[in-house]
Structures are given as structure tokens and as C-alpha cells.
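Example record

Each entry pairs one chain with its bound ligand, zinc ion.
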Amino acid sequence: MNRKNISCSIILVFAGLVSLNLQATVMRQINAVPGGVVVLPLPINKKPVRASYRGKRVMILKKDDQWVAVVGIPLYVKPGTQSVAIFYKRKKRRSIEFFVKYKKYKTQYITLKNKRKVNPYKNDMKRILNDIKTIKAAFKNWQKKRKVELYFEPPVTGRFTGTYGSRRYFNKQPRKPHSGMDIAAPLGTPVKASAKGIVINTGDYFFNGNTVIVDHGQGLMTLYCHLNSIDVRVGDKLKQGQPLGTVGKTGRATGPHLHWSVYLNRTSVDPALFIKKKYTRHINH
Ligand SMILES: [Zn+2]
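C-alpha cells for the complex follow.
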């Protein structure tokens, strides 16, 4: 087999992120889609030093004797071949390719009474740009961790009202696709950390409202938005299921709900991939 065949045939994408079953999932590239996650087995017997995809550092885990790179694919990636650079000691480098296929996402139309949240005022823009800078800086954090929990609990029980990736129109005007999952729940319902992690940012942002960002290690982060109250501080270590705030409607929201995002290698990916099937069966993709 030539190098290309090897890299293509070992592409592995899994349904439940944790089932690193090499045989069963070979070539079933169900998640190698924009907004998905791909798990790439790396050459055996060679300990990788680091990996990067589109210039961003990528998670590397070891399952039994197999090293794998866990890669988040941005929503804007066009179908086609992508490659991940793997770096070894003595500056040795190898690239592993995978194929991204097309995925159709839903379209969602939202009407907002607060027009300022659709067409912000001039002086709001300064704040919005500042918010983006702060949030992006948080995603740059790299918490070294050998084992990273990839099973998430839904942060709140409620009705799923908005799926990840939907193309969205606010008051008939096109806006960025939905970067997370919306779960509607009564105002004040506790919001819990979806996995163990460290609070790396809290703030009140123009669109996201009151927000908490939790770092789970190696570039895997969760973001909780529109909170009514924030009950944690930067640096707090949270256990899975530990309350971090309450459901609210701060920022750009039509009613009380949690906007929950998952970030991997600094790109948002579909949160549904990380939660157990029993919680997601009523989400229509
Ligand atoms: Zn949302």
C-alpha cells in the first residue's frame, strides 16, 4: 500500500466519540463533515510530540497502544481532502490525510423584538469586537492533560430548540450558522458542567450574554451562554455535573434557554457528538 492508501484506509470516525474501535468504524466517515470530529489513528510505535490542523494545535490521545489525533472540523471547510501535520522528535514530520464530505444543515428563522441585537448600534460594534477577542483568546488556552473525558452530560434537561450548524436568519437577515445547541428550560434552572474541567473565562457579552467557558484539556472546551446567573469564578475546578450558573435570556435570546457550544482545536463542533445517544435521539439533524 502506498502512503495515501494507508492514510485513507485508516481513517476512523466514530459515532460515540469514545468507542475507539478501529475495525468497525474504518471508512465510515460519518463525522468527517464540516462541524464534525474525526479521529485519526497515528503510526504505531512512534510517540507524537504534537499535531496541528489548519495551524491550530490538535488533541492527541492514547488508547491501548494506539495514538490518535482527535480533530474538530470547522463548519466552513469545503468537502475534499484535509491534512493534519504530526510532529515527532528530531523535527520529523508526517502528514495524515482525511476526506471531508458534504453535510446539509437545517435553516432556522428567528424573529427578535430587540432589533439592536440584529443590527447593533455603531458603539455596540466596539464591544462586540472586544468580546470576540476575549473569547478567542480563551480558546487559545492549552491545558496539558494525558486523559481527556470525551463523554459529556447534557448541561441542562430541557427541550432541544436549536441544533448545531443551522443556517440562521434573524428578522429575515442572514447571520452566521449556529455554533452550538440550544436547550430551552425555565429561567433559573441550574446549568451543570458537562464534564470535569477548569473555568477559564466568565463574562457578560453582547450576543452571548452571561457566559462561562470550561476547559476540559487539550483544546476541548465548553461554552455556556445567556445565563441568568454565573455561580463560578475563573480558576474554579469543576466536576462533571457541578452547577456553574442558571438558565437565563441575557444577550441575543428570544426566551430563557441555554446555548451550549463545544470547541475543539479552537473551532466549534457539533455538541451532539459528545453526548450519549439516549439524550440526543429526539434531535433531528
Ligand atoms: Zn444558540
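The first strand starts at residue 37 and ends at 41.
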